[in-house]
Amino acid sequence: MWHKYPNPHCSHVLSIDVVDRSVDPQTGIIRTERILGCKQNAPGWIVRFFGGSEDAFVREVSFIDPATQTATITSVNLSLSQFATCYESIRYTPSPDGRTTFAQTAEIQARMTIWRSMADKLENWLVQRFEQNAQLGKIGFSDVLRQLWEAREQQLAQQA
C-alpha cells in the first residue's frame, strides 16, 4: 500500500510525506499518517472564487492489521477545507476465494450555504475529480500489486 504513489496512473500526486508511523504492541496493527501533495488542475473559476492555487494537500491515515490481513485507509482534504470536504474511506479485505475485496466510499460536501448555486458547482466538480482519481488510484494500486507479486515470484524461482 505504501508503494501506491508515485505511479504513472496518478501523476497528480506530487509528494508523499510520512508524518507518523507506529505499531500497536498489543494488536500488531500498523498505523501510518501521511500528507499527500497533489496538483488538481482545478478550473479557473474555482481558483479565482476560492483563492489559493491548484496545489492541494490531503491527510491520509492507514491501518494495516496483520491478524485479519485487512488494510483500511481514510483521507480528507486539508486544502480549501473551509469551503468543502472530501472524506474518503478504502478497505481491502481477503475474500474466501483467495482474492482481495476492495470497498471505497466518499462523502463530499460543500460548506457554503449562503451561495448554494456555487456550492453545487463546487460539489459537482469535486465528485467528478474524485471519480477520475479513484479510478486512476485503483488501476495504479493494481499495477503496484502486480509488480510486487512478479518480484516475489522471481525471488521464489531463484531460490528453487
UniProtKB/TrEMBL annotation:
A UniProt-annotated Pfam family: PRELI
**What does UniProt give as GO cellular component?**
mitochondrial intermembrane space
- In this chain the PRELI/MSF1 domain maps to 1-153
Q: Which domain of life is it from?
A: Eukaryota
Protein name according to UniProt: Protein UPS2, mitochondrial
